[in-house]
# Entry
Amino acid sequence: MASYKAFYIQANDDGTFRRSIVQRDTGDLPQNEVLIRVRYSSLNFKDAMSAHGNSAVTRAFPHQGGIDAAGEVVESTSEAFSPGDKVIVTGYDLGMNTAGGLAQYIRVPAAWVLPCPRGLNPKRSMLFGTAGLTAQLCINKLVQMGVTPDSGQVLVTGATGGVGSIAVALLAHRGYEVVASSGKAEQAPMLREIGASEVIDRGELGEANRRPMLKERFAGAVDVVGGDTLANVIKSLQAGGSAACCGLVQSPALETTVLPFILRGVNLLGVDSVEIALAEKQAAWKQLARAAKLPAIERLNTTISLQQVPAALETLFRGGVVGHTLVNVGR
# Structure
């Protein structure tokens, strides 16, 4: 049994929550098959929701947070893994109701664990984390629906966030003409630097519009916002265009009509990075490995220590983070 540091969320009697770094023992972890020494993690909006007591994410407290982890196997009762194996764990119940990766150790089912593919190590994998995996899955859905670089512009909403910024970089790398939508006008130079050909203010698509359809504009879209923004994105798709939906930063509600679907044949594609089949997840990580050395990915990441996580999650919860945050758990 080893002692380790962990980001820990505890409920107060008055219904508020306190967030701190504490010492725990590996004996406190759930009795699953694979014990992993976590080297790197990353921050996601879901982590911030859990840290603020959102019961749709985490049902019971106290809780060790973090939906991402990468490191090496320490012990395994599964023949699939051996001590020293470099591995990635994202999704499933990690960091939701199972002790998560913003800590120096986790113990998880073997079915959740992926070997680091060639080209990725624990650090490079967490430069992407769940955000990068989700962005890749969105792009894959668009490709499956026939959206190519020759099809026309592809919109990315919430483009300065983790999923959005990585999506911009990955799409640009593949030759797409990317339109980035953001509420942070001061970040327009950064968005162009990572590959956006055009930057628009989120207000262009973020307000409720009663018109059933808008001017055809985008061949595809990656939407992390939901709400009125997604409704307007659907109305703005070209005939046969597709929008991959993966978030609800603005709202989980969606008010639209069937007209874009039956008059333009557009497609709304749901993207789930949590419960997807391990084989599909593994294929997406292999795709990310091929983009791991893109300068834009390094540019998008800010590295923090485990001690800085409570403050960083507060900033993320308030919408103040740009890009993606890598956590060096060993620091």
